Amino acid sequence: MNRRAFLRQSLSTSAALSAAGVVPIQAATKAKAAKSSERFTFCTFTKSLQHLDYDALAEKIAAIGFDGVEAPIRPGGHIEPAQVEDELPKMVAALKKRGLELTVMTSGINEVSAEQRTEAVLRTAAGLGVKRFRMAYYKYDLNKPILPQVDEFRPRLRELVAACREIGIKPIYQNHSGKNYFGATVWDLAEVMSGFDPKDAGIAFDIGHATIEGAKCWPLHWAVCRDHIDTVYVKEPRWGEDQRPKVGPLGEGGIDPGFYQTLLKSGFAGPVSLHVEYFNHKDPKLEAPFLAAVKKDFATLKGYLKVS
């Protein structure tokens, strides 16, 4: 689906959403309003809770004290793209009942295409009041010259950003460590993002992945991304005896404590997403220890950021 075809379908999709009762959320429950004066909006990635129904998910996350969730709405996620029109309104309604929001929708989208159901997924989410979605990654072919591939990513992103501007939702791209990830080195991502207005496209700055890839130069990575940072991701990497990076509890790994001071001094006042990824997310039997770890790490995070 090209841009022109995408726009031709917009009105029909909007009408379908209205008929289904999908309307923008006026995000103002009393619980949320009470938190509106706080500098940060805290959410947590719920990949390990995909076995829960929406009400149970909302209840457990609200009990820990988060403002919202980062939920996987992607192939293999809590909601499959093909089910978005039917299921996403139910999830958002369950969250709203507990004073929560869908702060970040983690998607499988990195282009405008029928295969990714770009329009249906994003228009449904935007109609429900979702403000941002994490993009799927672009990956390099290491057997080909790298810089020309960056130029191949640009038009795909440009078309997606234009479509998202029309729909009313913001794409954000995470710097993810790995040998072939666009954005792992951060500089490539920052350079491409510099061509877009920060209000239209942003970066989910992941200090864990920045630490894995950049170690002591994370301040440089932060600085080069700063104008486009929309959301901050927090996870704690550490290195085992095999020298392979892993993640563990906050405060027990490789994040420089100076990162939190930099964050506080930077003026950043957006979403902060806590990623607790040191459990087997496919094993529902680990729900209790996972939630205990989330609660502990969240308390640690709030301490670092001087939030009561």
Our count of helices gives 12
Gyration radius, in Å = 19 Å
**Main sheet summary:** 8 strands, parallel, barrel
State mean pLDDT (0 to 100 scale).
Answer: 90
Strand arrangement, largest sheet?
1-2-3-4-5-6-7-10
Description:
- With 308 residues, the chain is of the alpha/beta class.
- It has a single domain, classed as Divalent-metal-dependent TIM barrel enzymes (TIM Barrel), CATH 3.20.20.
- The chain has an 8-stranded parallel barrel with strand order 1-2-3-4-5-6-7-10, surrounded by 6 helices. Strands 8-9 form a two-stranded antiparallel ribbon.
- Helix 4 packs parallel to helix 5 and helix 5 packs parallel to helix 6.
- It is globular, with a radius of gyration of 19 Å.
- About 9% of the residues have low confidence.
